[in-house]
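ok so I'm stuck.
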Amino acid sequence: MNERTLLLAVPPAWAPLWTVPFAELAPQLQIFVESKDTYATDAIDYVLSFRPAPGLLQRLPNLRVAFSLGAGVDGFLSDPQYPKHVPLVRFVGNSLADEMAEFCVLHVLMHYRMQRFFDRAQSEHKWRQALLPKRASDIAIGILGLGEIGAVVAERLKPFGFRLAGWSRTRKAVEAVESFASEDELPAFLARSDVLICLLPLTDATTGVLNAKLFAQLPKDAFVINVARGGHLVDADLIAALDSGHLSGAVLDVFHHEPLPEDHPFWSHPRITVTPHIAAITDPRAAVEYVVKGIVRFERGEMLENVVDLSRGY
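replied:
not stuck anymore, here's the structure
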């Protein structure tokens, strides 16, 4: 790799998580930390970030590639000044998909095995035994967004015997997973989903997709898990669907505003479990290795992997 520069646009206090492995793996790559280091805007070749400040990338005239720290890239594309000629590469790593799958399996099983019912009984010092209302083979799980991570989630859920299905824009072939595709098949997919896991990318088309209309198409007592983006969910519609009894519960790991405000009703709702955007956290060293490999490929004139289609948003 020739001598190049990379701008790390993350909170400065977190910067050592990435600068340390960069120093080890690519010592010839000069790293600048946004809001901490002084740099010439025309000297920056690459950017690594999750949600760069609006207009930042547009001010870098010689920017060659932008790398995302996550699988989602809405933090970049929400900037109307994003330079469209600059390739945007999303992070794809086994650890990210594995952690997301672990989180989803955990909360599917907690719902299926009625753990929250027993937690409430313990808090009341009550011995409440209960039969499971359904066998695992009778529970249909729907993965909304059957991409790379969705396929791993399905793989991890298979051994428990749930009936699995996934929905995506185009037909996918995933073993033991029924595939639904296009807007025409979305109602049938929703109607058979006792548990709905949202793994969609956040785009103009998917913003607010978890709304009253969608919830009404789910079976009575359906359970919702959102580990994608807070922008997918219409908060008030979820609360209304829970309070009406149509939905039995929800697990939310992502929110419109993070940290979730202390006065937000999600915190105290008895049927909502809140986690602080920790379903999957990009491993810094894995991210650095991924970026270094990408830069090496680019410098050799090879095709970059996992480049985002800016027109689709993923």
